[in-house]
Amino acid sequence: MSRPNPVRVTLASSASAIALLSIALTPQVADAQTAPAAAPAQEEATEVDEIVVTGFRSSLQQALSIKRNEAGAVDAILAEDIADFPDQNLAEAIQRLPGVTIDRVNGQGTTISVRGLGSDFTRTRINGLEAQAANGGNRNRSFDFSMFASELFNSIRVRKTQSAEIEEGSLGATVDLQTGRPLDFNEPGFRSALSAQASFNDLSESTIPRLAGLLSWSNEDQTFGALISVAYSERAPVLGSFNTTRWQAGNPNPTRPANAPAAFPYGVGQNFGGCIPCTTTAQRDAVLSAYYPRIPRYTLGETFEDRLGMTAALQWRPSERTEIDLDLLWSRFNSETESPNMEAWSFSRAAVNQLVVRDYEIDTARNAFSYGVWDNMIVAAENGFTRNESNFYQASLNARHDFTDRLHGTLKLGVNRSEARTPLNVAYRFETAANNTFTFDARDNNRQPLLDYGFDVTSGQRFTLVNATRSNGGGNFENNVAAGALTYDWTDSISFKFGGEYRTYAFETFGLARAITSPTGADRIVGVDRVGRVVDIAGYVNAPSGTALRFIVPDIDALARTLSIYDNPLVQNRSEREVDETDNGVFLQSDFNTMLGSWVVRGNVGIRYATTEVTAKGWQTITVGGVPAYNYVTTENDYSDTLPSFNLAFEPREDLVLRLGAAKVMSRPTLGDLTPGGSVAPTTRTVSYGNPLLNPFRATNYDASIEWYFQNEGLLAVAVFHKKIDSFITSVTEGLPYNTLGLPLELLQGAAQPTDIFQVTRRINGDGGTLDGVEIQYQQPFTFLPGFWSNFGFVGNVTWVDSDVGYGTAGRNRLTGQSKNTMNATLYYEDGPFQARISAAHRSQYLLSFPGANGNSEEGVNDTTNIDFSMSYDFTDSMTVSLEGINLTDEYIDRYVDVTDRVSDYRHTGREIAIGLRWKY
After folding, report:
1. β-pair partners for 888
2. What pTM does this model have?
3. DSSP for 775-837, written as a single string
């Protein structure tokens, strides 16, 4: 049986994000559902020793209670945490937990990685229902947390170990998000809350609102209740950056073509057309071997976002034996982005063969140009506008019933749908002739170099409109779930669970585009002043003096009014693809909570059997005799998995918990890998396509930890984990009989036989690998210090992860998205109505892709450290004012290519300062 906590913590905190008061207004609740057997003992302890804590400390203690009483490895954040951290959304809050890192887009958290495994390997459930939230161009299985305001939720749990009763699909973790429910308040009548916040960004110099409200009611005997909450927010981030896209090198020893230029090896492949200061072969070879930036440019991204979310809940408890919960959730997230820039264009096109090096210096450590002057450069000015519209809908019904004192049942029904739309995406490009002298100088700062185009770039006289695109597209994701389980309490210490679920998952993507992208006739405007506008980005980037930061770019509105082709009908661009899955699972699990001598031993052991049926559809391009044709093809696949698991928790004494866990786990392939879309050339016997016959990622996980609860609200814990990944999906080209590929035979069109060997480029289940890690977690209020200092406390964690996986012919490396080291720390102060804290989150370098493109060994992101601050003061029991600072150091995101660390993108979004007012009743 679970040992009682030595003291009961009475929660009497004031909430920070008012719409989350479903926890803040429940002073007696400490997640009784987690460990019901412990509740009576806790009541007894209360009579002996009761300590009252408030505010941030109360939420931390409640989270510790959840962690301590779980059989597996679970970390939690409760409403006070989310509300009081200076976090813009759920991802920002979750990153405070051990082993969790986040990816940021436009200055806010979007997706998470857990213990080194990226967002595609993490499942997210909302109110117990597996969910897929997609925003904008997201076309994979990852969950985009930026879709939701944190005010809509009252708890987050991250389950890092697997048990049989938890649905399959995760290699990393299962994240449970819970919205508020009316009977959580434990008091009849009405409860309401309002919050308002104004946030100022020092880069965009704009102030935007954030509003939230909650209204809840329950009857006198607490058998029925209703709740509704609403949250609205805006953001207007500005992104200032320098980027190169990638780096490219020439070749001093290319194969001589039949029509080789007189200056060969100049002027072929990716080589420059000449080098004036190169007087020796060695100098020439050094210039042609050095990497140059493909598209060097300073860019500005101006974004406006608005997010509106609503939740509703009905709860009915007709008796102590029965409860029925209906939860509804809707969220809308819209964004508009304009992205003007000016760039040296010839490096990334065949026009590189015309460039003549006038002067140069090479950084030998990076084998890259640190300085260069080139003649005959094409200069381009670009601007684009994108509008994204995303909606998420969910309805879920959860019911429990105790048939007898020993037999209990649960039922879960639900559906959710995510719609990601890009209704408008336009882009325009002006270009000059190849007659400009361009200077690139990164000798003083390789992240923010000097760029000089050699002429007045505020004038449109040299430019011609050469490109105009317009498109739209979108994707739909839908989950339908029906699940149920029975629990039989064999004894007071042992119970058996049996259950199963039926799930369908559907994904589709689609798009249209304008057929004409290169303007002709009157639309090919020469001298573009009348359809351009001058932008000045000097206040958004820290470029060296002399850099051209004021320049002309396409005017989106003027071109829409001017171009005759703007309203041309959009045509199908064959981006359509579909994936439909039917997943069935059954499980058997035994839970136990007993004594072994003087030790408490609790946990679970079980087995899950899961089947998956996949139907994938996509466009295949068939080329026969040089003539392309198109066919929408359908392929099918199925597989099954048997997944045993166990979790054990030992308590040799009341302040110590030892945990062991092991499980076989699986994660289904990413959606892009499953599409059969690609190309088939029967006459040349080649095929390139995604692979709908992929099997899932499979792994065996082992976990162990020791947790010392050395004082009330105190914890020192160490966890170790090992994951043996059986197979990792990678790309290969190999010779295979066509009839083994799962593609329709009709695509051969009589030009080849089904048994012919084709050279096939596709995704396959390749070699596996390993992942190992250690987490250290420390939490303590400094109550042992005298006077003023006793109001301080600390929460922190450090995670170390290492991995080794195979990437096919590219070799072996660590997992993409995996940082070797992550650290989180919060120093807090609480004294009566005043609260303050400062938080830091550090993430070390991680890979984005391996190998990199254009001859670079890899692509990745360098270390980041984000520092946030928050303080609040309770003027009354109902009224609180707050001040928050987000990204106080204006941390840059530093993307690189190659192990030599060549800059790819160096961007920042500024600091945010927010002041807020909260009221509750």
Report:
1. none
2. 0.87
3. EEEEEEE-TTS-GGGGGEEEEEEEEEEEEEEE-GGG-EEPPBT--SEEEEEEEEEEETTEEEE
Amino acid at site 595: M
Per-residue CA distances from 722 to 705, 814, 877 (Å) = 12, 14, 48
Could you tell me if 387 and 334 are in contact, meaning their C-beta atoms sit under 8 angstroms apart? yes
- Determine whether 9 is exposed, middle or buried from the number of CB atoms within 10 Å of its CB (0-12, 13-18, 19+): buried
Cα separations in angstroms, 322 against 29, 165, 402, 772: 19, 21, 7, 44
- Written as six digits, the tokens of 913 are 């300062």
Instruction: Provide φ and ψ at 286, rounded to 5°.
Output: -65, -40
* Paired tokens of 431: 């270009």
The values of phi and psi at residue 92, to 5°, are -60, -35
Contact 393, 330 (CB under 8 A): yes
Q: Say how far apart CA 674 and CA 668 lie, in whole Å.
A: 10
Structure tokens at 204: 């965009």
Percent of the chain scoring above 70 in pLDDT: 92
Q: 424 and 494 in contact (C-beta within 8 Å)? A: no
343: helix, strand or coil: strand
Q: What's the mean pLDDT in 356-360?
A: 96
> For residue 350, what are its two tokens?
């065949």
- Asked if residue 554 has a cis previous peptide bond (ω within 30° of 0), the answer is no
Phi, psi dihedral angles at 170 (to 5 degrees): -125, 135
Q: State pLDDT tens for residues 446-470.
A: 999 999 999 999 999 999 999 999 9
CA 787 to CA 265: how far, in whole Å?
77
Q: Which residues lie below 8 Å from residue 39, measured CB to CB, with a gap of 6+? A: 32
Q: How many CB atoms lie within 10 A of CB 678?
A: 19
Q: Which three-class secondary structure string do you get for 425-445?
A: EEEEEEECCCCEEEEEECCCC
Contacts of 333 (CB under 8 A, 6+ apart): 135, 146, 147, 305, 306, 307, 388, 390, 391
